[in-house]
Structures are given as C-alpha cells and as structure tokens.
Amino acid sequence: MKIAINYPDARVGPDGHVADHDAGSTLVRRLLRIFPGSALIGDDPRSGVGFAVRPLELVDPSETVVINMAALESTSIWRTLARSGREPKIMNFIWKNTSSLNHPVERAGIALSCALFPTFANSERTAGEVQEMIDRWTIPAIAEKAEVSWVNLGIRLDHVLPRRDPDVPVVLYPAIYLSERKQPQVFLDVVERLARRTPLRVEARLHESHLASEAAMRLSLRDWAWVGPLTATREDYWAALARTTAFLATATDESYGLEYIEALVAGAVGVLPDRPWARAILPAGYPFLYRTTAEAEAMLLRAVTEPDACRREADAAAGGSFAQWLRARHSDDRFDAAIVEQVERWFGG
C-alpha cells in the first residue's frame, strides 16, 4: 500500500527537502521517514529527496492511502479521488488543537470528517476532543461508526544533547508563535518582573510570520531578551535547548505540547499552568504547576536560581528519574509503530 500525505502548507525547498520548521512541516518530514517512498500532494509535480510531489488528480486510489493533515479537506479529497470509480482510502491525522476552531461551520466540518473517515490523533486529549465533537455535531447513525485512535506524538530522543549550563540562566519562550492562545503578554509580564530580581536571559525563536509582530518588538527592546528566527538546523535547535535553564509555558490549551516535552527532556525546568493539557504530559504531583502569575514568578525564580534542586523535585514526583519517565512515555518510536499499525488495520498491508 502506498502513502500520500496532504498538508496544504508544505513547501519543498530547492534542495528537495520539506522546508520550514513549523509543527506541520516537521510532522510531514516525520511521516515521510515513517513511510519511505511516500508522495506529498501538491500542485506542481516534482521529485524530492526520497519522495515525489504529486497532484491529487494523479493519485491512484486503488493502491494509495491519503494521510490528510487538513481534516476539513477530506470530503473534497474523497470527491476528487472517487471520480476514478474506485473507493478512496483516506485517514485524518489530527495534530492541531481543536479548541482553536471557534466557528460552528469549522467544528461541524471537522466532526463530520472525523466521523466519515478513520482518524488518528496526536494525543489522548486530542482524541477525546475529536470524539466529543463527533458526538455533538453529527447524527448517531454516523457517529456510532466513527473510528478514532491515538498515541502520544513523542519526540526523537536520539536528538537530545548533553547539558551545558550557561553562565547567565536562560529562560525560553517555549513556542514559535505569539498567538492569543499562547498568552505571550502573561509570559512577558512575569519575566519582566523576574528580571528586576535576578540576572537572566530570555530567548524567543519565532516563526518568521511573528517576528515583526508588536509583541515580538516589545520583547526585543529589553536588554535581557533575544528575539530571533527559528534555528536553521535540527542540531542548532537541540544545542540551544541543552543550554536552556528553564521555560515558562502560558498557553491556555494545547493538543499535545511537543515544544514543552522537548525542552523538558533536554533538562530545562518547566514551569507550566495548572491546566488539563499540562497535567496530561506530566507525572502526578509535578511541583511546578502554577495557578496565578505570582506563583509562576515564584516558581520561575527558583528554576533559574536553584535549577538542580528543582530537577531533584521533578525526579521525586516521577518516582525516580523525571528524564526516564518522559522518555518512557514520549518517545516517537511508539508513535511511529502505532500509526503504521493503524494504517494496516484500517486499510490492509
């Protein structure tokens, strides 16, 4: 069985690789690695390194499963492929936070798509949200036939580098966007107060679309802050995490929390909001979950002035080694095996 991946924002660079460092493009690269020889759906046919870009109209539905990362498009993909007279094979891959879909048309559209086509989610939390939408926005005759599976997205553990503690503690803004859901103003308020109390350096690596935003400009004006583009290579990214002391998460919701898990596995002390999405990725009793910005400031102060003691507290919450607890639950090996298994179960080998 062949695989074709649909991600409308994917861009193939002159070197034949999927470009950009946003979460979607990163996941496309992962899927291309998991399914060697796959096609990437795009308007202009071309050869990439290890894959081909192919228009949807040239995909053979009799031998190809379309893994669709834009679930609202599944019904239109089905219509295009069905013109051949063969039954299309389509599965949704839900990797974004569904709570960001505010319009009823979007929510109903996603619900219908996930009820009609097998759906694979990037976490248990996302799968639960998808099932709730199906139950709410579709009729029972469709909802009862829905197939929703999930596994934690996980990270590439072999990318983690040895820690290099900096002379001045580094606090990371742990996202590449300054969108409202990430609450960047809360982050800025807390670190600004903290910078008056103790030396620190704040680093924010942002997607190019947010580098010129007002929030980015405000942060960059602080002499203790560095705001710049995403790292050019994977090695640079993990090297930066290896010297990150702590991060402060301020998002109201997340579908999984890939950036936070990567930073935690790299040894940064994570200060996170006491919200369901954060509790879902951490051991019970994790000591650095805050309910107020005052608590966030106090926890972050400890994280940058007593990082080793904070790591020992995280170890205690995990019943031994926090790093090993994370590795056991957030390895991308489990994701890779699970999505291959689901494709075979839903569509055959």
Plain-language structure description:
With 349 residues, the protein is α/β, with parallel strands linked by helices. The chain has two domains: 2-153 and 332-347, 3-Layer(aba) Sandwich (Rossmann fold), CATH 3.40.50; 157-329, Rossmann fold (3-Layer(aba) Sandwich), CATH 3.40.50.2000. Helix content is 41%, strand content 15%. It contains 15 helices and 14 strands. It has helices at residues 23-34, 74-82, 104-116, 124-137, 140-143, 184-195, 208-211, 214-220, 234-242, 258-265, 276-279, 293-305, 307-317, 322-329, 332-347; strands at residues 2-6, 39-41, 46-47, 52-54, 64-68, 89-94, 119-121, 148-150, 170-172, 201-206, 225-229, 246-248, 269-273, 289-290. It has an eight-stranded mixed β-sheet with strand order 3-4-2-1-5-6-7-8, sandwiched between helices. Strands 11-10-9-12-13-14 form a six-stranded parallel β-sheet, sandwiched between helices. A hairpin with a 4-residue loop joins strand 3 and strand 4 (52-54). Helix 3 packs across helix 4, helix 6 (184-195) packs across helix 12 and helix 12 (293-305) packs across helix 13 (307-317). The longest helix has 16 residues, at 332-347. The protein is globular, with a radius of gyration of 21 Å. The protein starts with a strand and ends with a helix. The model has no long low-confidence stretch (mean pLDDT 94).
Note the main attributes of this structure:
single chain; 349 residues; alpha/beta; Rossmann fold; six-stranded parallel β-sheet
Distance between the termini: 6 Å
- The structural class is alpha/beta
Helix content: 40-55%
Computed over alpha carbons, the radius of gyration is: 21 Å
DSSP strand tally: 14
Number of helices: 15
Compressed to H and E, one letter per element, the order equals: EHEEEEHEHEHHEEHEHHEHEHEHEHHHH
Beta-strand percent range: 15-25%
Q: Quaternary status of these chains? A: single chain
CATH-level-2 architecture of the largest domain: 3-Layer(aba) Sandwich
Q: CATH superfamily of the largest domain, called what?
A: Glycogen Phosphorylase B
Number of domains: 2
Low-pLDDT regions: none
Q: Order of strands side by side in the largest beta sheet? A: 3-4-2-1-5-6-7-8
Biggest beta sheet attributes: 8 strands, mixed
What sort of overall outline do the alpha carbons produce when their principal axes are compared?
globular
Average pLDDT reading = 94
- The CATH topology of the largest domain is Rossmann fold
CATH top level class name of the largest domain: Alpha Beta
